[in-house]
Design brief:
- By secondary structure, this protein is an all-alpha fold.
- It has one domain.
- It has six helices and no strands.
- Helix 2 crosses helix 4 and helix 3 runs antiparallel to helix 4.
- The mean pLDDT is 87.
Length: 95
């Protein structure tokens, strides 16, 4: 995943990698989307000091959809259903 995320600013890259699950058996899109949702779930009120984790979550979710499109564009709708506003992302309550 470092190769996929390598062009990110160093602090953002570190926050994204830190958020990724240790379970390397997950498909890349699932791992990234799940990490994004988990990271968003740790935020409390979206204060200024939470800008980096918020940007990391956004970047992870963006990369998740990009990875899914590259691997199997037919799976985009299913990924969006699981992790989008009607799925895990919506369940975080972050607005």
């Amino acid at each position: 995943m470092r190769e996929r995320l390598g062009d990110s600013p160093p602090a953002l890259l570190a926050a994204m990698i830190e958020a990724l699950p240790a379970d390397a058996s997950l498909p890349v899109p699932e791992a990234m989307a799940g990490a994004a949702v988990a990271l968003l779930g740790t935020l409390d009120g979206l204060r200024r000091e939470e800008a980096l984790p918020l940007m990391a979550a956004d970047a992870l979710l963006t990369h998740a959809f990009h990875a899914q499109a590259e691997a199997d564009a037919e799976g985009l709708a299913a990924l969006a259903e699981r992790f989008g506003a009607a799925g895990a992302l919506g369940a975080t309550g972050v607005r």
